[in-house]
Amino acid sequence: MKLFKRSILLALCFDMFFLNCIQTKAQDINLFLKPFQSQSLWNSKPVNPVFSDFVIPTSDYFPSIHNGQYSTGCFLATQSDPPMKIKGHKGKKGIYDADTESFSNELTLPHWPADLIPASGGDGHADVFDTATGIIHSFWQLKKVDGEWRATHHGWMPMSGTGWGDGAHYHQGARAVGIPACAGIIRKHEIADGEPYYHHALAMSLTHNSLSQTPPYTFPATISDGFQGNNRGPIPEGSLIMLPETVDLAIFKTPEIKKIAKTLQLHGAYVVDENYGTPYVIYVEQGGALDVHKGLWNSQAAEELQLLRKHLRKVNSVSGYEDAQGKSFKPNMNINLLSLRGPWHLESGPELGKYDTYSQSVVFSNVQRNIVQSNESGRSIPSIVWAKPKRGEHYKLSVSAKGGALLNFKLLDQHSRKVIYESGNVGDGKSVIIDWPADVIIPKLVLTSGTEKNASVTATLIKTND
Questions:
Q1: Which phi and psi (to 5°) does residue 389 adopt?
Q2: What is the tens place of the pLDDT at every residue in 8-17?
Q3: Which residue, of 97, 348, 369, 389, has the greatest Cβ tally within 10 A?
C-alpha cells in the first residue's frame, strides 16, 4: 500500500515537473514572440500625446515598409542548441563588445540556432533569442565566411527587460540607439494574425532632413548614430512618432498600410536609427510576407505611404502610459548610472579581477592574496545626455559583493584630478548617499578583492531624494 502511494506521489511529481517545463517553455516562447516586460515602452500605449507641428519632409526615395536586405532576422535558440564560436572579421580589430567598450578576437555563445541567416545587406543584422539564458544577442555585420561565423559588433539585452538601455549598460544591441535590431519590428507571425493592429510600438528610421543634431537622441534612447553632423531636422533618435487619432483611417485603402496606421495611432513608432535618403522606414522581420507593392510597384500604396508621412507627428509629451495589461504607469527615468567595465589598473596583487558583462560585476578568481585595482578612465559613468549627474543632486551608491570584496568610490576634479569626494570602502549590502559636488567630474573606482574564494563585486548609482 505504501509502495502504491509512493508510486502515485512520484507520478504526480513527474506530472507537475512536466507541466512546469511546459509552462516555462511556453513563457520563453512567448518572450521570443513578444519580448520585454509589460511596462516596456514597446508594449505600451501613450496617453494624451501632445504633437509637434513638424511634417516629415520628402527625400530621395519613397517611404518604405522594409523586410529585405537591411532588415533583420529574429532567431530562437533553446537549451538543445549547440554552442557557437564567433570571430572578428579578418583585417579588423575584432568583435566590438558594446558593453565593455572593447574588442575581442572571438566570442562563444552557449546556444546557436541552426536556421540563422543574417540580413544580406551591409549591416548584416541578426538577433539570437536564447531562451535557456533569457538573453537576446544582437549582431552587426554577422556573416558566415569559409565555414566560420564572423561579426563586427555584439550587444546583449534581457528578453524580459525594458527593451531599452540604462545608464550603465547603455548599448544593449546592434541598433544605433543601443537596442537589439528585433526590438519593435513587425514580426513574421504578426503579419497575417487577423488583428486590426500590431500590439506594440514599431521601429522606425528617419533620414537627415528630419533628425536633429542637438540633442542627437532623447529618452528612452541611450546613444545614437554617429552621423548627426549631417542632420538638419528637429527629431532626436529615440523620439516617439505617432499618427494623431484625428486622422481618418478610411483614407488608407491598402490593408497592410491601414494596419500599420492603426498601430501608429495606438502605440506609435520609436526612431531607432538613421537611413540614407528615405523619409521614413518601418522595419519588418526579414522574410516577412508584408509587401505593400506586391513584388512590383504599387502606385496606390506609394501614394498612401506619402499620405501617412504627411500626417505623422513627433510626440512632444504625454500624460502617462498604459501597459500591456491596461494599467497606467509612468516610465522609470531614474536608472543605474554606474558600470564596472574598466579598463582596470592593477595596484597590487597577482592579477586583475575580470569584468563579467552578464552579471555586470568584477570577478576575482583563485584569490590567494589581496588584489587592489582601480579605474579612473571616466568610463564608469557613461555620458547619457538626459541622465547626467548634476551638482547638488543626491545619489545612492549600493554595493553587492561576495568573498569580502570592497568598493571605494571617488570623485576627482576634472582639471586637477584631486579627490573631492570619497566613499571609503563599502562592502556587501551597504550603501552611501552622495551629495554630487560638481556637474563635470571624473569617477575613480578602487576595488579590493579580499582573500576569500569566489570574490566578486557589483554596484549601482541611482538618484535619490534621501
A1: -60, 140
A2: 333 333 333 3
A3: 389
Q: What is the CATH number of domain 345-464?
A: 2.60.120
Domain ranges of the chain: 46-67+185-329, 74-158, 345-464
Name every residue whose Cβ is closer than 8 Å to that of residue 90 and which is 6 or more positions away in sequence: 145, 150
Residue with the bigger pLDDT between 405 and 454: it is 405
- Percent of the chain at pLDDT > 70 equals 94
Strands 313-317 and 240-242: antiparallel
Using CA atoms of 378, 382, 383, 384 in order, give the dihedral in degrees to the nearest 10.
-170
The answer to whether 159 touches 87, Cβ cutoff 8 Å, is no
Q: Are 439 and 391 in contact (CB under 8 A)?
A: yes
How far is CA 149 from each of CA 78, 85, 89, 95, 144, rounded to the nearest angstrom?
19, 7, 9, 11, 4
The pTM is what? 0.92
